[in-house]
Every structure is written in C-alpha cells, then in structure tokens.
C-alpha cells in the first residue's frame, strides 16, 4: 500500500510539472487530469487510514488547527491558497 501511495504522489507530481511547464509532457496535462490524480491519491490515503485504524475525522481537524495557528502568525503570499483552504475547512468543522 505504501508503494501505491508513492506511485499516486508521483503521478500528481508529473501532472503538476506538466501544468507548470517544468517538464514538457508527451500529452498535455490538464486540470481535469490533476483532479483525477489528486482524487486517486486521496483514495489511497483513505485506504491506508482504514487499514491502520487511523481516524482521519479526528486527526485532520487537529492538523488544520495547527496550520491555522501557523498561518495566522506568518501569512505569506505562498501560503495564501492554503490559508483559504484551511479557513474554508475550519468553517465546515
């Protein structure tokens, strides 16, 4: 299962490299391809959590709260997108 996680992460990285122009792909990469690969990666994360008995519904909010504290102190331009995601998630929790 760990190798599946690494494989999916590599596929996400390949699509991002193609979208960012770092490595010209044989086939042009699209946001739809990125959505698919991110969904594949998320699926294997859920499978791993289930396999090891990890309660993501408990641990993820703690992680988000940690990011909230960190980005509240040090909001940088690079963190703006993540900051918005974290804030959106926090509203829903």
Note down, in words, how this protein is organized.
- The chain has helices spanning 2-20, 31-52, 56-73, 80-92.
- It contains four helices and no strands.
Descriptive terms for the model:
single chain; 2 domains; 93 residues
Which structural category do the helix and sheet elements fall into?
Answer: mainly alpha
Helices and strands, in order, run as HHHH
Shape: flat
Distance between the termini: 29 Å
Overall radius of gyration:
16 Å
Beta-sheet strand percentage?
under 5%
- Find the count of extended strands (DSSP E, 2+ residues): 0
The poorly predicted ranges are none
Q: How many structural domains in the coordinates? A: 2
Largest sheet: none
Write the layout of secondary structure elements.
Blueprint: H1 2-20, H2 31-52, H3 56-73, H4 80-92
Helix pairs in contact: 1-2, 3-4
Provide a brief overview of the structure:
This protein is an all-alpha fold.
């Amino acid at each position: 299962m760990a190798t599946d996680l690494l494989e999916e992460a590599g596929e996400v990285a390949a699509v991002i490299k193609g979208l960012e122009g770092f490595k010209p792909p044989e086939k042009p990469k699209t946001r739809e391809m990125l959505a698919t690969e991110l969904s594949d990666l998320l699926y294997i994360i859920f499978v791993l959590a289930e396999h090891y008995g990890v309660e993501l519904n408990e641990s993820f909010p703690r992680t988000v709260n940690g990011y909230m504290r960190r980005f509240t102190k040090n909001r940088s331009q690079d963190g703006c997108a993540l900051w918005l995601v974290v804030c959106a998630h926090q509203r829903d929790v």
